[in-house]
Write a structure and sequence with these properties.
By secondary structure, the chain is of the alpha+beta class. 43% of the residues lie in helices and 23% in strands. The strands form three sheets. Strands 1-5-6-4-3-2 form a six-stranded antiparallel beta sheet, sandwiched between helices. The chain has a three-stranded antiparallel beta sheet with strand order 7-9-10. α5 crosses α7 and α7 crosses α8. The chain starts with a strand and ends with a helix. GO terms for molecular function: kinase activity. This is Lipopolysaccharide kinase (Kdo/WaaP) family protein. Keywords: Kinase, Transferase.
């Protein structure tokens, strides 16, 4: 067992232990909980977000004990990296890991719950959404600044950005942090491929490309071409994955 708390939170160890023991039956579920399970619990009148990561197969359990950091630990450490570089993410509180003789059995990432916010998905899928273009340009600005800091946010899907309007400004909070790469040299083409997961909507890509071009000095036509190529490749990949799942389902019958 491994418990790591941010400064000022270790006094909650007993409460956190009780929450984890009752995790399956307690708390308020966020999202479908199909793979990883995210729930909100209260401690001393304040809300905290607990993410329980899907249990691994026997090989990965061994890998995550001896060779790789767990997803919970990476989430905690990457949150602190983001905060140190003045990016927004819900404040990290703790990560907890459980092991047996063979490997990792379960892990949890705990952060402060972020309320009064909405996912980027809401603006992406609603053409009538207020301040839509302003939000997309803010997103492009965020991505440019991440890239300038050598940060590749791999799970760059719209649901992993929570927006909070503060003093007429939309602040972007990154969540689902366990997959990031850090580069000392981050070439333009690799940066633009980082947009692949966001959208296949051409008009949205045009706004993002225009803003990214202004910030980076890369021609807008080139930005749009590379972002569109990456998006189309991702769409094809997802279609192939669905087809394979379809055949796998019927082969089992």
């Amino acid at each position: 067992m491994n418990w790591v708390f941010s400064e000022g939170f270790s006094q909650y160890k007993n409460e956190v232990s009780k929450i984890i023991k009752n995790f399956k039956n307690g708390g308020t579920l966020i999202g479908p909980g199909a793979r990883n399970v995210v729930k909100v619990f209260e401690i001393d009148g304040k809300k905290y977000n607990f993410k329980s990561f899907k249990q691994h197969n026997v090989i990965n359990r061994h890998v995550y004990k001896f060779y790789r950091k767990s997803k919970a630990r990476r989430s905690f450490e990457y949150a602190n990296v983001l905060l140190s570089k003045n990016f927004y993410t819900p404040n990290p509180v703790a990560y907890i890991e459980f092991f047996d003789f063979w490997g990792l059995t379960s892990s949890y990432y705990m952060s402060e719950q972020l309320d009064n916010c909405f996912p980027l998905t809401d603006a992406l899928h609603n053409p009538e959404f207020s301040d839509r273009e302003k939000i997309f340009r803010g997103y492009a600005n965020l991505m440019f600044n991440l890239h300038e800091n050598g940060i590749e946010f791999i799970d760059n899907a719209s649901g992993n950005f929570l927006l909070k309007k503060e003093n007429e400004t939309y602040n972007f909070y990154l969540v689902d942090l366990n997959r990031m790469n850090f580069h000392s040299d981050f070439p333009t083409d690799k940066r633009l491929r980082n947009f692949a997961r966001l959208t296949d909507n051409l008009e949205t890509m045009k706004i993002i490309s225009d803003e990214y071009s202004k910030l980076s000095g890369v021609p807008v036509e080139y930005c749009l071409q590379k972002i569109n190529e990456a998006s189309e490749k991702m769409v094809r990949k997802r279609k192939i994955k669905k087809i394979l799942k379809f055949y796998k389902y019927f082969l089992k019958k």
